Amino acid sequence: MPRVSARRTIENALHRYGFVSVAGVDEVGRGCLAGPVMAGAVILDPRRRIDGIADSKALTAQARERLHQEIISTAVAWAVVSIPPEEIDRINIHQATLQAMRQAVLSLAPLPDAVLVDAFRIPLLPMAQRGVIGGDRRSAAIAAASIVAKVTRDRMMQELHDADPRYGFDRHKGYATAEHLAAVARFGYSPQHRRTFRPATLFDTIA
Hints:
alpha/beta, Nucleotidyltransferase, domain 5, 9 helices, globular
């Protein structure tokens, strides 16, 4: 299936309703066994076109790196917030994801007056928001947020791999691949693993 670039149709509609500054928000790492959950928030400059923005999962690593640099260089504002494994275990992954997204939005300067969120609605935001199903495919601002969050998290997982290469974080980025599960079965948890994520197939044998 060919990759489809995300459009600014939703953002443009909000501009016509009088919203001046529209942010997109997305998360990455929600379903991982290890590493943080991260959220990105981006306000794209409506006067600057960035070709090729799409759902980060549909892009090559090289394309994500190129777009990441272009997004952070031309955006009105951008932010990435990370919630570490110990906090995920304390408050649960859903609350950690919402916390990361809320903090990312509130870290933008200037603050947006409307927010587009991939799938979710974020509690306690002091501005208008809209949850967009499939938002990272339908909204350029959400797709841009997914790219900056994904690139930032992938770089962090590479650093974690450099510090402890036993688990292969550089390859699977903390997701539950067969390689990752086999490494956990052999070595046990690392400080980067989420204790509340326990795939029954292998983790039940780990103390």
